[in-house]
Amino acid sequence: MITYKDSGVDIEEGYKSVNLIKKHVERTFNAGVLNSIGSFAGMFELPKYNNPVLVSGTDGVGTKLDIAFRMKKYDTVGIDCVAMCVNDILCHGAKPLFFLDYLACGKLDSKVAEQLVKGVSEGCITSGCSLIGGETAEMPGFYREGEYDIAGFSVGVVEKENIIDGRDIKEGDVLIGIASSGAHSNGYSLIRKLIPNLEIDFEGKAIGEVLLTPTKIYVKPVLKLMESFNIKGMAHVTGGGFYENIPRMFKDKLTAVVDKKSYQVPSIFNYLLSLGINEEQMFNTFNMGIGFVLCVDRKDSEGIIKALEAMGEKAFAIGYVEAGGAGLCLK
Sign of the CA dihedral 28, 216, 220, 296? Predict the structure, then answer.
């Protein structure tokens, strides 16, 4: 008799995985969560809003996962997965409510799955949302043993009148950059080609460990900032770097003028630059040390930078908005 386990799917390991991740998931629960893991669907009670708009986003971690496999370190990429989703919905002023994850592999190892979901839970706690469900798929013969894929989906809420969509951005407004924690989760196909050896020393650590630094989550400081200041536009600097992401906040034909000398580019990007990438490609691929950008009125810019610094963030006035539809101008 042939069993499901003979085909490569170990149901018992799946049950073990659920038991291991349960404690991490429950740490993320808040008053909005109406049921626990194990149900057919997650339930979340919407907070009281006058005219609520749900804002959603989905993303994955990409080929940064290969660094995790090779370093056998799995507890940070779950944070990346959450960050990539919640930072996106934050761009429209939304507060993340809940998160769902999807984990796929060739052969399930419950201990690895626990570390991955532990990272997801940490990301949810940092962004103030709840992990209310997910899926773990064991697909033998489809993924190679030892390899995993992880993706997620976040839903947030914002009052309709408070949606941030760039409609009020005008010439003369200031662009404020908030520092990133490193390469975040973009450009890793290029990084892996440039740095095949993950064990080389970089500032006292294996460079593979440095490259696994999780994506910074900007939710709490930015939501706090929105209580006191008018934020006209926001951009999460992900794939496509400065060139693709900063102009996404504009509704009209405007240009973001960014001064490259307005802040110090982190050493990891200077190292990548030294490996043969030209500067334009760097700014078109990586966040270059700025993971999130705010567009604000000039009169508010100094107060916003001071407020961010008081919350422990590094923030810089990196440029301004001018008329024209050039998208981005680096100088």
Answer: negative
